[in-house]
Hints:
Blueprint: H1 2-12, H2 21-25, E1 57-63, E2 69-74, E3 80-84, E4 88-92, E5 98-102, E6 116-121, H3 125-128, E7 130-139, E8 142-152, E9 159-172, E10 179-184, E11 190-194, H4 200-203, E12 215-219, E13 241-244, E14 248-254, E15 261-266, E16 272-277, E17 314-316, E18 322-327, E19 340-344, E20 349-356, E21 359-366, E22 374-379, E23 385-389, E24 394-399
Antiparallel strand pairs: 1-24, 2-3, 3-4, 4-5, 6-7, 7-8, 8-9, 10-11, 11-12, 12-13, 14-15, 15-16, 16-17, 18-19, 19-20, 20-21, 22-23, 23-24
Amino acid sequence: xxxxxxxxxxxxxxxxxxxxxxxxxxxxxxxxxxxxxxxxxxxxxxxxxxxxxxxxxxxxxxxxxxxxxxxxxxxxxxxxxxxxxxxxxxxxxxxxxxxxxxxxxxxxxxxxxxxxxxxxxxxxxxxxxxxxxxxxxxxxxxxxxxxxxxxxxxxxxxxxxxxxxxxxxxxxxxxxxxxxxxxxxxxxxxxxxxxxxxxxxxxxxxxxxxxxxxxxxxxxxxxxxxxxxxxxxxxxxxxxxxxxxxxxxxxxxxxxxxxxxxxxxxxxxxxxxxxxxxxxxxxxxxxxxxxxxxxxxxxxxxxxxxxxxxxxxxxxxxxxxxxxxxxxxxxxxxxxxxxxxxxxxxxxxxxxxxxxxxxxxxxxxxxxxxxxxxxxxxxxxxxxxxxxxxxxxxxxxxxx
Length: 400
């Protein structure tokens, strides 16, 4: 009993409850002190045990000349379509060689965290050549997150029949936290993540159902609300809102094992989260959080739990800045199948997370020696994991 008491005293300095003593014993991959004095809601919600890939890996840079890449999509031929922050897209071969540069896209507001953001292929891309993309659109009242679609030309040098299908209003003069990721559900509709635009005067709109900010939206390919959404019959609510109470959700993916929608978002100072998104649920921001303001002051009342608000299944404190997420669903690296990968910006690594029964069971930090900000991830046709970085590199992580 004395050893157990001493352990509780030891971890008290890290503000971790006795619920997670097992995690401390298991030697978490995170060794830094937390940014805030919060205890997890349940064991394993943070600082899970460290794990290590046993499969020998070959890590190579297959393109080092990208210009502020933001998103990567894998083309049917194994090549890549990549957005670049300042308003262009490029196509690369499967080996990483530049094929074409696509210009003539709508004007973007590249200030701060804005620019040309996510790009996603339509499920029928092989026939239609349709793509969907997100960008920060300048307006007279500030900027908005806009979602557009168009057809990639046969020679991959232009986007034809460009149409803006949705704008996440209201506009805001700030230049931070647009989100945004776009993915398709099994019915061919879109899930779109939107940021709450950061500033204190607007962040509470994440809690307001008449605002598109700080949300997961559910849209048809034409940009209309998917029928029978959770708030379709709620007065003064936007029918396209699927879930709310999010800060800056830059990671969005469907778990191939369960079919559930997973999300990763930036906390403030500490409190980066992974959530499983359910229709109609409130994920709490800015009422509850495991982080604090960048000044060190508490956010709101400084609480981490509240009735009616959904807990993250996992959080990081201090922050790693989770810029993207991708599930690995190949048997090429067999031990990775079903694992979740997070691209860390400020954390400068790729986080590999193992999962059991919708709980995070282990964490590994890959490529931490590269000193890169990992902006987006994708599993290739060849079973390799690909990552683009703010430094302009495209990494291939493959089995030796």
